[in-house]
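Our working data are protein records whose layout never changes between entries. An example says more than a description, so a record of this kind follows.
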Amino acid sequence: MKFHRITRWSLLVLMGAVLAACSTTETRRKERSESFGALSADQQKAVLKGRIVEGLTHDGVYIALGEPLRKRKGVWKGKQVESWVYGTIELYTMPAWRYTGFVCRDGRTIVSPEYYPVTQSRMRDSLVIFFDGDKVIGWQEL
């Protein structure tokens, strides 16, 4: 039986993803019920469907999508803007070989290759949301 080796980093990323997946729009809505109540009816519908619309607040985006991978500050068209970056976990397998040697009865050494793939993960940015102050001004799917 062959086993795929998973690195510690990959395991930590996967565990984080599983824990993050435990958070749903409903649990986040309850967590920030006051902010959710302050949204318009159209914004509330969008947020509960996990969608982003212009004018949403930080809390509205958090309720819709959860915590971003990272937050960045920058300047766009002369304005201070903040961007939230969301991503997905990709698993990939790197081909690897290891060689096992053994000695035959007649004294010859034989080296046998064995396929030993290594499974790793990486985060890939998939969505960036741009804020002017506390309001969404746009987003870009990557």
About this structure: The first helix runs from residue 8 to 21. The chain has one domain: 5-141.
